[in-house]
């Protein structure tokens, strides 16, 4: 079920029949675009078997039954190759944040002119994350207020990182102490500090976490 790959296929999940009809008409009569499916709810969208698979899905937030925010994950799982864009009248920051955290690839307002909406669809299909200007401004303000997330690189000191690298190479505490020019007691202090900082309980866990962070 691959369908026409020369046109950008779009799925619609919108309960407002009038608005959905407008979008269906725009997509069906615009060159380079194709309507994959149109559904009035998340539940109906999950049951659909489109002739062509969507590359982008416009998902309304305020829907009967499962809301658009709740439906981002299931819709994304049902159509894993598609980018899910929220389409809504809401500019509420909590809704924006929750939708993005649930996997939405963009957030557009329903008042977006059709021509600009088509441009946003194209951006999403080529790897962009389109947002209406009003939404983008709110997202910037929203994330600027989030607490800074400390990374592993910022947690460990340089000598602690060197010590973990030695452990990854197979050194014992004694040989690592010799290579670093410190006592075994000092190395044990490194171990306690690293375990506490990384929230781990073993040498293997500490080394694994440092390797995943690209430190060693």
Characterization of this structure:
With 216 residues, the chain is α/β, with parallel strands linked by helices. It folds into two domains: 8-144, Rossmann fold (3-Layer(aba) Sandwich); 152-212, Winged helix-like DNA-binding domain superfamily/Winged helix DNA-binding domain (Arc Repressor Mutant, subunit A). The protein is 51% helix and 13% strand. It has helices at residues 17-28, 42-47, 68-78, 93-101, 114-125, 133-144, 152-155, 158-168, 173-180, 184-198, 203-212; strands at residues 8-13, 33-39, 56-60, 83-88, 106-109. Strands 2-1-3-4-5 form a five-stranded parallel sheet, sandwiched between helices. Helix 8 packs across helix 9 (173-180) and helix 8 crosses helix 11 (203-212). The chain is elongated. The mean pLDDT is 85.
CATH fold call of the largest domain: Rossmann fold
Order of helices and strands: EHEHEHEHEHHHHHHH
**Rg estimate, integer Å:** 25 Å
Give the count of helical stretches.
Answer: 11
What's the end-to-end separation, in Å? Answer: 44 Å
Shape: elongated
Quick one: biggest sheet? 5 strands, parallel
**Mean pLDDT metric:** 85
The CATH architecture designation of the largest domain is 3-Layer(aba) Sandwich
Give the tally of β-strands.
5
Strand fraction = 5-15%
CATH class of the largest domain: Alpha Beta
Number of domains: 2
């Amino acid at each position: 079920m691959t369908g026409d790959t020369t046109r950008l296929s779009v799925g619609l999940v919108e309960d407002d029949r009038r608005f959905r009809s407008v979008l269906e008409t725009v997509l069906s009569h615009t060159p380079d675009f194709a309507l994959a499916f149109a559904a009035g709810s998340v539940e109906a969208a999950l049951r659909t078997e489109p002739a062509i698979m969507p590359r982008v899905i416009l998902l309304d937030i305020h829907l009967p039954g499962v809301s658009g925010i709740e439906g981002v994950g299931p819709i994304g799982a049902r159509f894993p190759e598609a980018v899910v864009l929220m389409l809504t009248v809401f500019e509420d920051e909590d809704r924006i944040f929750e939708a993005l955290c649930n996997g939405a690839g963009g957030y557009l307002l329903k008042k977006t002119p059709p021509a600009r909406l088509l441009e946003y669809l194209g951006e999403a299909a080529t790897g962009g994350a389109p947002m209406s200007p009003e939404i983008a401004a709110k997202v910037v303000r929203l994330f600027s207020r989030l607490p800074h997330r400390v990374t592993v690189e910022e947690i460990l000191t340089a000598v602690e990182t060197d010590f973990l690298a030695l452990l990854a190479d197979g050194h014992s505490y004694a040989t690592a102490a010799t290579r670093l020019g410190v006592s075994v007691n000092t190395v044990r202090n490194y171990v306690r500090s690293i375990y506490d900082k990384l929230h781990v309980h073993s040498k293997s866990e500490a080394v694994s976490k440092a390797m995943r962070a690209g430190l060693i």
